[in-house]
Write a structure and sequence with these properties.
The protein has 139 residues and is an alpha+beta fold. The protein has a single domain, classed as Thiol Ester Dehydrase, Chain A (Roll), CATH 3.10.129. Helices cover 21% and strands 41% of the residues. It has a six-stranded antiparallel sheet, covered by helices on one side. Helix 1 packs antiparallel against helix 3. The protein starts with 11 loop residues before the first helix and ends with a strand.
Amino acid sequence: MTSVPDEVTDHAIARRMFAEDNASRALGIELLELGAGRARMSMCIGAQMVNGHGITHGGYVFLLADTAFAVACNSGDDAAVAARCDIRFLRPTHSGDLLVADAREVAGFGRNGIYDVTVTSGEQVVAEFRGDSRTIARP
């Protein structure tokens, strides 16, 4: 994985991938920022995203973080997929909360990358996600 300066690329792979991401679009996920090895995305928690405890279902928090990870690791010249990822839920969120996921590349080596994603609600960190990516062959 080679990072390319933002002024040299329009991040075409990431932009195309996100534009065709029906799951993220259906949930109202928005791309706020995109750069080399990084992405910032947001999602407002709707009433249908709340579990039986009255808090956001963890799958939605994971999905937002995973989407930011996917966009960040596809911001270069090579398409990439997740090889592994995990999340730590730190605080609950609720219907009406706006979640923001900030993804950034931590390390790149060969066809592999490591990305950290911090999910916040306001000033509070609500989850920490780490994902390993692997570039795939160009079509």
